[in-house]
Queue: 3 jobs
Job 1
Amino acid sequence: MDENTKHILEIITDIHEQMATKEDIKTIINEMEEMRRDLQAQIAENTKAVAELSEQIRNVLGYAKEINLLMERVSVIEKRIGIA
């Protein structure tokens, strides 16, 4: 066997040793599927948290509006009784 053929066989052997097996690929696919499920769960949790925060913000804005209305009424009352 000449040197070129030996070199080619060495390269092919190296490639074959480093090549992923079907089991390796199945393992990677399973790991990726598990990661996808985890990410989906996290996204669902984050979506729920954002919705809850949005509701809380709407409530706070509602209170701010009510407070502003009350402050306007207090201002009118103060003017009428002469303390403003």
Job 2
Amino acid sequence: MVEIVDPKKTETVLDPACGTAGFLISSYKHILKVNMDDKCNSTLTPDERGRLAQNFKGYDIWGRMSIVDTKVLFMLPVNRH
């Protein structure tokens, strides 16, 4: 699904039924992957990485799940070499 949607680093990713945040996490990893050079170094600037973390929104019927999902995103590595 993420490859079809192909989220960009400047776009906001919204999952209105985020559950365990699978779509949000996959979207984050996809953006990191497509923003790497031939040597697998990130091409994202520090400012872009900071904004990227703010571009993910998730909602769920059970409000506490969304809080957990957001914390999961912050545990992912931002700078992968």
Job 3
Amino acid sequence: MENVLRSAVMLFRPEAVAEKPDDYGLIGDIREVCAHLRALEATFELTGDSDLLECNMYEQLALKAKYRYLLNQAKKQELACPLELFGSD
């Protein structure tokens, strides 16, 4: 079970896509949060332990709050992101 969870997390790990990290720092952070959320959602169904499920739910809530914060920061900075940075999600 642990190997399956580890594989799922590795599957959704974001790759470095920006040539200039300073240009895409905030966008990269948003992308990383999205990838982490997808990984948590993928592992949610595989978790049978109630304590791990509770941990997963709280982690999802925290990541969604961080995502909202990052989006607000991006809006304040009037950032635009080419869609190709996010792939075909």
